[in-house]
Amino acid sequence: MRPIDQWTGIAARALRRALRMSVRVYAEHLGVSFRAVVDWEARGAGICRRPDTQAILDTALAQAGDEVRARFELILRSAGYQEDATDRRDATKLLGEEVSAVPATDNDFDAELLELVRRAEASDVGATALDAVDLAVADLALRYPRTPPVELLAAIRRWSRDVVTLLDGKTTLAQRRRLLVAGGWLSLLAATVHVDLGHRAAAQIARNTAASLGREAEESELEAWAVETAAWEALVARRWAEALSLARTGQEIAPRSRAAIVQLTAQEARATARLGDTRAVYAALALTDKRLREQPDGQDSLHHFVFDPAKLVYYTATALSWLGDPAAEDYSREVLSASRAPRRVVTARIDLGLVLTELGRPDEAAALGAEALGSGWLVPSNVWRAGELVAALTTRYPDIAESRDLGEQLRTAARQTEAWHTMK
Length: 424
Prior knowledge:
Distance between the termini: 59 Å
Number of strands: 0
Helix content: over 70%
Structural class: mainly alpha
Radius of gyration: 26 Å
Strand content: under 5%
Order of helices and strands: HHHHHHHHHHHHHHHHHHHHH
Shape: elongated
């Protein structure tokens, strides 16, 4: 028998607690999205508005055992739930419309929602707040290849402040570790963005913070990614031997079943390409492929801390273009035809332009360079790559007008990215 007339956020949360499930597990149990559950619980006394919510929660309660139902009723009473229908309608009138006005955008899970769920949990740190932080970290990692770095850095900073606030409250050991890990990933993303913007000192501080949090949380994957970020920064700074040393050091500490070791092996391939060691490049690419096959399937290729077949194609294109290997053409074209990440597309155009320059096709190479320079997606961390293409074209084909035009475009792009460099 149904104990209430309509399911509210308070009741939906009470059922989750009675079932002793996290938000993520509860969503899977009900067959709805994580976001739907967070939306219900944020409504408090407001009615859950999804059309089939009533039937979904009715069924879940009916299928629960007597012990769960008894716990459910006790939690409802302790939450101050009013059985009187008039009181429920008044609460809905006061709270329901305000909560329903929250826009359904990529930024739903912002600081205001975190405050709502923190209060709803009636404790410093609750499971819903922790799940919201984890979701935000994943969302930011997915947005990295498609979001201007200054905009992304602002969002990372907001969530970092929220994690610090939660760490200042009372936490269990498990909650503290989870927050340290989340803070570590946010620090790594910040380090990556700072490298993009040319903020070397800030990147090092953020990277060191991530490594420290990884050690405290005993999360070796975080530590390995911190080393990978240092290796990538060394590549950007054209310190090839240092990049190679860091890539190999990171592989020694990286867990074998996680993505960092794959990324580090791919970075080894790129570093050895700049050192001109063809045999080592192909060996590293083969090992990258082997380690990639050991990773779990079904992860989103745009997630910055995921390495999937699409990323392997992207890294292979760059490594082979640096070697001057004609095979880079096919890999670069595959990236251009399949990638959803605009910054990868820019790099693939540069890679393809370099190999076409070597193959004696300067017109095509110049056109690709012009597209890359005019894309709006060059940042300090990759503008030097465009500079290498322009230098190759103007050196080998100085009499081609397109090569001279590219030089002016490069100077304009460099001035624009220099303005980004000053943004903190």
